[in-house]
Design goal:
heterodimer, A: mainly alpha, 2 domains, 2 strands, disordered N terminus, B: mainly alpha, Potassium Channel Kv1.1, Chain A, 3-stranded mixed beta sheet, 9 helices, 57% helix, SKP1-like protein (chain B), Skp1_comp_POZ (chain B), Skp1_comp_dimer (chain B), ubl conjugation pathway (chain B), SKP1/BTB/POZ_sf (chain B)
């Protein structure tokens, strides 16, 4: 576990591009499925991930513990929300160009997530890969830590059912459920 | 899956079809081999791809297509036999060996193969490349997986989340 670096427990300096506190709550995203208890601790998860960059507010918005979601600025709803964001000095202020382009770059790099592997952008294809991981107890937990999209995919009940039937190992599912219960609550 | 030429039964010689890659290279293969692709199978059953026409495949470049066809040609006889009552253990072992070598390739080639197999809906190849990717990531830590697949480094937030998680639940990964 070499990557467990010295950053453990240390406060992380806020990333200037990623901080965009929004006064949002789950109700502002009707397309978002009900947040599971599982997702609360993971701050950032959205139903349709590819056009969405989601960022944690843990280190930013003072006293705020709810997740902050930033939609792709191209979307009208995102525009609207950005307009009412607290960072804006005034609701009528034009978007600052420099920041906006940084923002879209950031959104882009997060939503595509990986450069050389467009094949991994497709959830269906990704599911095919992950299905074929060996049915060891550590396989899916590891995959779920790779990134948020993987985590969302791996914790979907549909995926878990497929994983079980692919490997014909019913006992493993028990472990995963138990694992989720411990992890997500 | 019935091989189309057995349905036609018009002559003894295997029917050939022409596939045209995105960079306009023409590939002539047996219809039985091309029919491993569910997408092509329909076109071929409709009588397409014969003669001078060719079936254009705008999503697949010639390097990838030749690789795909290599797989198809190798697997066509086994697929045509269906349940393969006459396939011996030797044949199967030979196919397995071929498969193993087939996916022993550069990652960029592998990705284009994945996309091609997906677009052409070649079930066996999809499964083969998916297995290969799974093999690439199995037994690795999340960070190793990210590096293997060429993900960018995690953002500080992601890193912090991972660290916090591992601190608490690291035992689950032993």
């Amino acid at each position: 576990m070499g990557w467990l670096g010295s950053a453990i427990g240390a406060s992380v300096p806020p990333n200037p591009f990623s901080i965009r506190p929004l006064p949002c709550a789950g109700s502002k995203h009707p397309h978002r499925r009900l947040p599971l208890a599982s997702e609360r601790s993971w701050a950032t998860e959205l139903a349709s991930s590819n056009r969405v960059a989601s960022l944690s507010s843990r280190n930013t918005a003072a006293g705020k513990s709810s997740p902050v979601f930033i939609l792709n600025p191209d979307l009208p709803s995102a525009r609207r929300e950005m307009g009412s964001a607290e960072v804006m000095s005034s609701p009528n202020a034009p978007p600052q160009m420099g920041e906006d382009s940084e923002m879209s770059r950031r959104v882009h790099s997060t939503s595509t997530e990986l450069g050389p592997a467009p094949a991994l952008d497709d959830d269906n294809l990704l599911a095919e890969f992950l299905l074929r991981l060996p049915p060891l107890p550590s396989s899916l937990p590891r995959a779920s830590l790779v990134c948020k999209r993987w985590r969302r995919l791996v914790s979907e009940p549909h995926f878990l059912r497929r994983f079980r039937s692919h490997h014909q190992k019913p006992t493993l599912l028990g472990f995963i459920y138990e694992y989720c219960g411990i992890l997500w609550q | 899956m019935a091989a189309p030429e057995s349905g036609d039964g018009n002559n003894g010689a295997a029917r050939m079809v022409t596939l045209i890659s995105s960079d306009n290279t023409r590939f002539e293969v047996e219809a039985a081999a091309a029919s491993l692709s569910q997408t092509l199978q329909l076109t071929i059953l409709d009588g397409g791809g014969g003669g001078g026409d060719g079936i254009p495949l705008p999503n697949v470049d010639s390097a990838t297509l030749s690789k795909v066809l290599e797989y198809c040609i190798k697997h066509a006889p086994a697929a045509a036999n269906g349940g393969a009552p006459n396939a011996t253990a030797v044949d199967r072992a030979e196919l397995e060996r071929f498969d193993n070598e087939f996916v022993n390739i550069d990652q960029s080639v592998l990705y284009s193969l994945i996309m091609a197999a997906h677009n052409l809906e070649i079930e066996g190849l999809q499964s083969l490349v998916a297995k290969k990717v799974a093999d690439m990531i199995k037994g690795k830590s999340p960070m190793e997986i990210r590096r293997t697949l060429g993900f960018p480094d995690p953002t500080p937030e992601e890193q912090a989340e991972m660290n916090a998680h591992m601190l608490e639940y690291g035992w689950a990964y032993e």
